[in-house]
Write a structure and sequence with these properties.
- Converts heme B (protoheme IX) to heme O by substitution of the vinyl group on carbon 2 of heme B porphyrin ring with a hydroxyethyl farnesyl side group.
- The chain crosses the membrane at residues 28-44, 50-73, 94-114, 120-141, 148-167, 173-197, 222-239, 245-262, 283-304.
- With 311 residues, this protein is mostly helical.
- Helix content is 77%, strand content 0%.
- It is built from 16 helices and no strands.
């Protein structure tokens, strides 16, 4: 959590709007908005466009609130890691108190208004997501166990379920499998990153798997989770949100993803370091395309279904 040094530094320059917006982790919010939007559109119950817009907006605000609370609590860790040292609080642009106030205010706002705009199941799922990310992951698991990414990944996997619930008022097999798609994608995605930025986690004493169990074990875990992910990703294609386009995309991407995981598993550290972790970086970049392509295919299937193409 942030200490006095962050508070002192935060007064060195006048904060700008962009500094406050950065607290919301806009790049992460992009994924939240997109997957929530897909969950909303893929649901079998049509929603008024304005209500749908409000639902996605409030889900995005809730995701941003989680990001602000995460930055408030993790300011000490962020200051020690090269890729996070320029975040608003350790960079001295925003105080910890401001981040906490923004996070709490936006959390309450997003949950209440999502419930009023759609239904209270969706609002409850959003509230639980914020609680899970801030309390379970940020304050507890992240500093305690190398399974932090595995369990904590649930927070980022809820948006499509929330979008689906906003439209239907319930939870279905399809929405649970959309949750599983993101949940199982998170560990190989972040562990691949950890393989080539390990010193960041060493310096911050964050118990990432690469730090606690070594890179060889991390490579084995990446392969295991990737194979499991492929099974769930293909299974999603046989639910009401799937179809020929989704199955084609899923088949191609999962073959490539499993091949990339096998390539990483086969490498030793000497070879990886010699070519500057080229295979690991390639796998990480593919993982970014992987999730967006799967949800994009679900979105296309939903659009074609609405047009009656598959009727």
């Amino acid at each position: 959590m942030s200490d006095a040094s962050f508070e002192t530094r935060a007064h060195e320059s006048e904060p700008q709007f962009g500094d406050y917006f950065a607290l919301l982790k806009p790049r992460v919010m992009t994924l939240v908005v997109f997957t929530a939007f897909v969950g909303l559109l893929a649901a079998p119950v049509p929603l008024h466009p304005f209500v749908g817009f409000c639902a996605v907006l409030f889900i995005a605000v809730g995701g941003g609130a989680s990001g602000a609370l995460n930055m408030w609590y993790d300011a000490d860790i962020d200051a020690k890691m090269r890729r996070t040292a320029r975040r608003p609080i350790p960079a001295g642009k925003v105080t910890g108190e401001e981040a906490l106030a923004i996070g709490l205010t936006l959390s309450a706002f997003s949950v209440i208004f999502l419930g009023l705009a759609t239904n209270w199941l969706a609002a409850a799922l959003l509230a639980f997501t914020i609680f899970f990310y801030v309390i379970i992951y940020t304050m507890w698991l992240k500093r305690l166990t190398p399974q932090n990414i595995v369990i904590g990944g649930a927070a980022g996997a809820f948006p499509p379920m929330i979008g689906w619930a906003a439209a239907t008022g319930d939870i279905s097999t399809a929405s649970v499998l959309m949750f599983c798609l993101t949940f199982l994608w998170t560990p190989p995605h972040f562990w691949a990153l950890a393989l080539f930025v390990r010193m960041d986690y060493d310096n911050a004493t964050v118990p990432m798997l690469t730090v606690t169990h070594g890179r060889r074990a991390t490579r084995r875990h990446i392969l295991a989770y990737t194979v499991l992910l492929a099974a769930f990703a293909l299974g999603l294609g046989f639910t009401q949100v799937g179809g020929p386009i989704y199955l084609t995309v899923a088949l191609v991407l999962n073959v490539l993803f499993v091949k990339g995981a096998v390539d990483i598993w086969r490498r030793d550290e000497a070879a990886a370091e010699a070519d500057n972790y080229r295979a690991e970086k390639k796998f990480f970049k593919l993982s970014l395309l992987y999730l967006f392509a799967h949800f994009g295919a679900i979105l296309v299937e939903a659009g074609l279904d609405r047009l009656g193409v598959w009727a």
